[in-house]
Amino acid sequence: MFLVFPDSDAIARHLSARLVELIRNDPQAVLGLATGGTMEPIYARFVQQAKDSKLDVSRVSSFNLDEYVGLSAVHPQSYNHYMHQHLFNHLAFDEARLRLPDGLSVELEQHCQDYSDAIAAHGGVALQLLGVGTNGHIGFNEPGTPFDSRTHVVALSERTRVDNSRFFDSMDQVPASAITMGIHDILSAREIVLVVTGEHKARTMLNYQNGGITEALPFTALKRHANVHILLDEAAASLLDDQACRRVVQPTCA
Length: 254
Ligand code: GLP
What we know:
Elements: E1 2-5, H1 8-25, E2 30-33, H2 40-52, E3 61-64, E4 66-68, H3 79-86, E5 98-99, H4 108-121, E6 127-130, E7 152-155, H5 158-164, E8 177-180, H6 183-187, E9 191-196, H7 202-210, E10 228-233, E11 245-247
Helix pairs in contact: 1-2
């Protein structure tokens, strides 16, 4: 079942209320965090709701999905910088509990293994936020990635580099590779929330609805997980069967 909201702001209000509730029930919650344009309104709402409700986030831990290889943590297009800009800098997080892959790591293979091991040591994250690329990638797991993959280095597809070039000054500045949690790591989350917004993702969602489970469309791995929620705006849901959609007219507000 797809949960369809009027727009991305309605999704953001619903999801940030869910995050506030989760952290209130478990102040030491371990979150799996994502980047991308889709997540920006969600983090903005969460920051606002967390401040309004004086939520204590000081013991929350997090693992981010991915990072570009070759970009330092403070590079303006790094995902580390994105997370500080949109979330971490606005609330009293404990920096030591916030993890992203290190794009400048020299021992990349060991770094990737350590990252997966750290996620496993927490028993997987409590809730994994996910977006999806137009080619169905999750994190940076491009089409063809094995579903049993752990954190690894990936050569980015041309499609993904073009999609993400809007965040860079020019196409040649988009890194050629990235570190990403593997699909196995993502599926180890106890709950997964996939957020899909915009008309440009409508066909991707149609392929998800009509297709089976295939490595050619990485996010179909989510069909193997028992606790996945897929939240869409009307534009992203526009090609889906009506019977498969539940419309959320009055989203939960904090
Ligand atoms: C990037 C990220 C993904 C993200 C995807 C979609 O490639 N690595 O984690 O889901 O882009 O991004 P957007 O939300 O900007 O469409």
